[in-house]
Specification:
about 150 residues, alpha+beta, five-stranded antiparallel β-sheet, 3 helices, about 30% strand
């Protein structure tokens, strides 16, 4: 197997280009698990607003029953932000991200209204294989081949 994931859906750019343009999206599977990747370059003048919105979204995220695990990363020092999360259900991902009265949905609206991002990428992947551990266990060991 060449890779451990297949892109299903994505939009945006990373470093000024579409990093997944060489891939053909695979059909949307009926069941999970799912890998979600988000990446944004935040305008320096918007970092305070962005960071102020993080706690409510993080609290909401950690209370999602379909969330398997997640990690957020900031670099340079705070301008580049990324998250990687594993989920068991696409409907639950959509409810978290786009539910009508959720902290995440409020942040999505604010990012558009206040123009927080110079660049953004949002991608959904289907895991094809799972290797190694995350926090001491393989979180996908029961869901996909090793």
């Amino acid at each position: 197997m060449d890779r451990a994931y297949a892109p299903v859906r994505w939009h945006g750019q990373w470093g000024g280009r579409d990093p997944l343009q060489a891939f053909m999206p695979v059909p949307v599977p009926q069941a999970g698990p799912w890998i979600i990747l988000t990446r944004a370059t935040i305008y320096p003048t918007k970092i305070r607003s962005f960071l102020g919105a993080v706690p409510a979204v993080a609290d909401e995220l950690l209370n999602q029953p379909a969330l398997i695990n997640s990690v957020g990363v900031g670099e340079a020092p705070l301008i580049y932000q990324a998250t990687l999360s594993l989920w068991s259900s696409l409907p639950d991902i959509k409810a978290f991200a786009y539910g009508s009265d959720t902290p995440h949905n409020h942040v999505i609206r604010r990012t558009r209204q206040e123009h927080w991002y110079r660049e953004e990428l949002f991608a959904r992947f289907l895991p094809l294989a799972s290797y190694g551990t995350w926090d001491g266990t393989n979180p996908l060991s029961h869901d996909i081949p090793k």
